[in-house]
Amino acid sequence: MPRLSQLMTFMLAVALLAGCTAPAPRKEDLAMEAKLLKFAGPPIPSFTYLGHYDGFRTLGNKEVVIFTTVSDGYLIRVRDPCINLQFANVVGLTSTDHTVTSQFDFVISDHERCHIDSIRHIDYGAFKRDRDAPH
Description:
Helix content is 29%, strand content 35%. The protein has 3 helices and 9 strands; from the N terminus they run H-H-E-E-E-E-E-E-E-E-E-H. It has helices at 2-20, 27-37, 124-132; strands spanning 40-44, 46-48, 55-59, 63-67, 72-78, 91-93, 99-101, 106-109, 112-123.
């Protein structure tokens, strides 16, 4: 009987760990990330955030784009573990004195706090002009 209980405990642990793994990024997330990266600057330590934004888009469980104006956005990469970001209905950011910092702040998605790893400014106006231009 001890072997059976050990086997059941092992199977339960495997099932729990499998539930904690993040799904692979969707193809459309990878394509959007590649397009946005063309217009992303180098990593920056922080940006000013006045508590509202024009929209957001999650790119899997590692990245979210926050559109702060119609022309600007920020590609924010988060650290592990952050397993529910791609399913977020609402995204928020922590800040100090209206400044979001990669070293200290978090992306908040539903009930999960994801520590920010890096921030990159996106020239969203240029992205939209490129997207809308005939190719």
